[in-house]
């Protein structure tokens, strides 16, 4: 049986690797490229491996490309990013097509991480929708807008699994779980690339950052990664692999090292895993100057590290120009071969061919499109829906929410009227001026029905040195001229006059994201103080946490009567928040990354192993695996999220007691909406392998289904489990399920208790 399942896995693995629009071995493409390459000098081939940025977008390193125009004309540039708009991109393309010797078009890239101009919620927020169709739609809207602006190669999706909220880039991914992460990776690739890359409204996607970027030691960005093969293959690799199976066109390496070799020069990652094992046939691009950074990693000079990267399987060098400046010499000295350069060059030309650039290098530069395709009302409506659906209701004592659209409301906090903090990190193409603030959203949704009393209450933080670090891309933390005491006093006086207080607190956008790791993931003291004082007024208190990461907000949970995790919700964030708080949308988001009690619990995730000394309950027990000063349980578990209604689960039924590798088990459960509102529930299926040859996780997500259930109604939700769904990687990297007993749990979060068992024969 083992062999059968491994075989099934292998067939499935390779079956999904075709790129839309081009069959493998497409002779027309091969002939075209062979013919073109026969005319290219070695220097021109190396030129194709060079990716430049003249510095138009966000710069994430200290270097920018120079003499770009001259380099394009002399065939030294294969791709470019940070240039926007059909005119500018057309001009740049013209230099390549009309002024370089062979006229090879360039590929135009950008980071379109959560929307282009219509900025959607942060990816971590989007993941909390558990709605693959919606996520796919946001990706296709992003592609439509970006291509209208001349960008057709996207540095997204970012699928790095992360279990460490200290790491700022947890905001850019889909959280901690490989199964959900894989579904999202697929949805995004399909949304960006659709069926035909030559369609000028679709774009080539890049899965990043390969690999394991989300597990840096101590949560510090760019830091060392070292983990077992078992963990890599079972927990961290699946979303990258899923993107490849979905036909992603390119892969971006990560900054970190893996087992002592930086990803950009790691042959095991880039060739053995990516190409030989997973059958990837697109091209691999480095991260921003990550080839050069191998010098600082301690692996040699620029010539050595560039040769190492090419030999490892890297095709395109982002910004650093190590390839451009050293590969000719390395070829002469026998450090690299002509064949290695040819391979990389061919892969990049193939991507250009698949994008239709050799038929029409100006395909994506249509000056009429921005006006009709960017920031349309339909796109904004989707952003509003996505934002509302990404919010996660964490507490709602005595059904305080939804609020009535009447009376007086105190709307306080530093993020109520803060346009610059609405979009979230890594939105380099978004523009804050298009964002709806919370205050505006409330006015839009409530009109004159409610009296809104607004006060800032506190600065995001009071420390100017900290603010300076956050404000590198523009003002995000604005320290008020008024003293903290004066801000507080105003807020308290406003709160006293209100029927209910809504406090919007959290992080400035750049407190999460790249190079924004934190060792303290609680609210800054200025905001804590505000909430404490608001709590003392005795008025009902709704806390809205706007952040890019799970936060340790235990004290705030205690202080609040209701708590909503908003994330950074994008251009329509303000409207969407009002939709949720006033009941126009009943929240359905579920956490995709565990919220810890404190930073000491990190890394934290639901799919833990039992250990030999499990704690059993949350009571401290000597010589058990627990802490003296904190529980093992998180503040909020993976999969958690409330609704204004309630859902009851019963009748968990398996259609048979045993499973073989030729059939499947149907798991059904009935879910009743037993509350007072229509609502959606993310029904989650977890499986535990009771006995295995390696310590099995206590439970693993194996299915989910988001269903709408009108109040009073019951829906039967069905899942299918096949033997291959139970397979896992073994120490020798074979992939198969082991026979024996399995326990199934179904419910509304990862602590689901309704269970049943079956046996795999
Ligand atoms: C980031 C990448 C990004 C690249 C280009 C880097 O700093 O790590 O995610 O795609 O910059 O902007």
Helices and strands in order, then pairings?
Elements: H1 2-15, H2 27-38, H3 42-48, E1 50-52, H4 68-73, E2 79-81, H5 86-99, E3 107-110, H6 123-127, H7 132-148, E4 153-154, H8 178-193, E5 206-210, H9 229-236, H10 238-245, E6 250-253, E7 257-258, E8 261-262, H11 267-277, E9 283-285, H12 293-297, H13 302-312, E10 317-318, H14 322-332, H15 338-354, H16 369-373, H17 377-390, E11 392-396, E12 408-412, H18 438-446, E13 451-455, H19 464-470, H20 484-496, E14 500-506, H21 525-536, E15 541-546, H22 554-559, E16 562-565, H23 573-581, E17 647-654, E18 658-659, E19 664-673, E20 679-689, E21 700-709, E22 714-722, E23 728-729, E24 735-736, E25 740-747, E26 754-760
Parallel strand pairs: 1-2, 1-10, 2-3, 3-4, 5-6, 6-9, 12-13, 12-14, 14-15, 15-16, 18-26
Antiparallel strand pairs: 7-8, 11-16, 17-19, 19-22, 20-21, 20-25, 23-24, 25-26
Helix pairs in contact: 2-15, 3-14, 3-15, 7-8, 7-17, 8-10, 13-14, 17-23, 18-23, 20-21
Q: Number of DSSP strands?
A: 26
Return the average pLDDT rounded to an integer: 95
What is the CA-based Rg, rounded?
26 Å
* Lateral arrangement of strands in the main beta sheet: 11-16-15-14-12-13
- Which structural class do you get from the secondary structure elements? alpha/beta
Describe the sheet with the most strands. Answer: 6 strands, mixed
Q: Report how far the terminal alpha carbons are from each other.
A: 9 Å
Which ligands are bound? beta-D-glucopyranose
Q: Helix tally?
A: 23
- Contiguous uncertain segments of 5+ residues: 1-24
Share of helical residues: 25-40%
Q: Report the β-strand fraction as a percent range.
A: 15-25%
